[in-house]
Amino acid sequence: MKFIGITQRLLENTSYYEVREALSVEWGDFFKEHLQGFLPLPLSYAMPFSTYAQSLGGSLGGVILSGGNDLNSLNPNPLSSMRDEYEAQILTHCLQYNVPLLGICRGAQRIAEYFGAKLELLEGHIGNHQVVDTSSGEKFEVNSFHNYGIKDLPNSLEALVMAQDHSIEAFKHKQKPIFAMMWHIEREGGMQAQEGQNQSFDEWLKIVTIRKEKE
């Protein structure tokens, strides 16, 4: 069986101090419907990512950087800093070993920032909104749950989908199997069969599947 590693949201319990790792049950439903043949592997921040990579070897089919939490550069706090540092380990490993990586919302922001992209506070990105595929010009609607967005990309990354305010909603790395989108594919309306909407996920999944078949 192949695994897809997935990072979790970090939460601080308010009734007594305890830091918790959390992953929406929607991801389980998403794997059952769209990632059959792969098991989700929630990654613990207490375990170096290198431990997972070395232990699983070829059984690690890919990694997802999920949503939740702000980047530490946008909202400095210990939990965001912990998550940023851990996801930097993942990015470095995926770049070195060509492991397929998919960023969702906060995960997309983390990938963009890792490569030097600029992020800004946005308005009108809480709730569904219209975006456009940069290659076909097709418009479609996506869900949206973020306050910060990506305004430009370095040369190593290519924009795939743009919002009406010209912020970047989906992108990919030009040489590496790294893809990202700002909407939540695991939530309602995240995987509608509209032109261009699933391009990032489809390309990432194709690479993941080819790797699985070669093992």
TrEMBL record:
Q: Which UniProt keywords apply?
A: Hydrolase
Q: Which Gene3D superfamilies match?
A: 3.40.50.880
Its signal peptide is: none
Question: What Gene Ontology terms describe what this protein does at the molecular function level?
Answer: hydrolase activity, acting on carbon-nitrogen (but not peptide) bonds, in linear amides
Q: Could you confirm whether the keyword Magnesium appears in this record? A: no
Identify one Pfam family in the record. GATase
Q: Name a GO CC annotation attached to this entry.
A: cytosol
Q: Which residues form the Glutamine amidotransferase domain?
A: 74-195
- Is Protein transport included in the keywords of this UniProt record? no
Q: Give the domain of life.
A: Bacteria
InterPro entries under this entry?
Class_I_gatase-like, GATASE, GCDPHdlase, PuuD-like
Q: Please give the name of this protein.
A: Gamma-glutamyl-gamma-aminobutyrate hydrolase
Q: Which organism is it from?
A: Helicobacter ganmani
